[in-house]
Amino acid sequence: MHRHSRQRKVILDVLKRTKTHPSADWVYREVKKEIPNISLGTVYRNLKLLQSIGEVTEISCEGNEGRFEGNSHLHYHITCQKCGQIKDVDDIILHDIEGKVARATGFKITNHCVGFAGICPACLE
Amino acid sequence: MHRHSRQRKVILDVLKRTKTHPSADWVYREVKKEIPNISLGTVYRNLKLLQSIGEVTEISCEGNEGRFEGNSHLHYHITCQKCGQIKDVDDIILHDIEGKVARATGFKITNHCVGFAGICPACLE
DNA sequence: AATAATAACAGGAATTATTACTATTATATT
DNA sequence: AATATAATAGTAATAATTCCTGTTATTATT
Ligand SMILES: [Mn+2]
Ligand SMILES: [Mn+2]
Ligand SMILES: [Zn+2]
Ligand SMILES: [Zn+2]
Questions:
Q1: SS3 sequence of A60-121
Q2: Where in chain A are all domains bearing CATH 1.10.10.10?
Q3: Which of B59, B77, B105, B110 would you mutate first to test chain A, the one with the most A CBs within 10 A?
Q4: What is the pLDDT of residue A1?
Q5: Quick one: fold of A73-125?
């Protein structure tokens, strides 16, 4: 069973309170302010565990591997190829696409992801 | 300007003739059968160059980073979480989604990707 | 409250994928 | 043929992630 550790709690808190989509290392440095001797392995271990219980999501589109967020509701992402920021795209959800692809491929589909790449308004100036 | 090298040609040939979505290392081992002393760095360098001229695409959804294909027409992918195979999903293309997201976000969008994960028919047995 | 079992930890080593470096070779141009 | 330099092989370096091991902290049980 899962025990509660201070490390796990702070890692999740850090993720819940940021609106960005940080890397494991950013989380590590952030948690370090509160728990100076936390180890990077602990961050990775907990990010994985928190994912397995649905508290944390890892983004997986458009070269954004290794970016995490404490937000498990389905949504997509867009990345600025100039400044690197990753923003949520909340406006659009493709509700029916998994069923469509299931019928077309014969796969049992468990999830899907959609990612966009481009230039953000600020970088367009 | 680009010169023609045997290495580059064979790397592209290998990618064009496979229907899988191989890793750089698989390409390396495959090319090695024809050019035994090719170096892995050459494979990476050429994969990147071939991408830049649109001859090669790197997949970027659902944890499939680092998989390549010699096929640049827009299509999506589905990965079997059990056996790891990556298949093309040719049936569906979201033509209008980039415009929709551009309007919603203010980004200038250059491309998008869609990935599915699930269990393939064979692994469902 | 004390004891016992073990999940979780810190710190460091190991692994893997990718990129960078450098002296040499091959290609295109004159 | 001579020249300029893109591209290469081979190796070293970097970065992200996982693994390992001895120690600590949490929970359940007494
Ligand atoms: Mn998000
Ligand atoms: Mn494909
Ligand atoms: Zn930007
Ligand atoms: Zn399968």
A1: CECCCCCEEECCCCCCEEEEECCCCCEEEECCCCCCCHHHHHHHHHCCEEEEEEEEEEEECH
A2: 1-71
A3: B105
A4: 84
A5: Dna Ligase; domain 1 (3.30.1490)
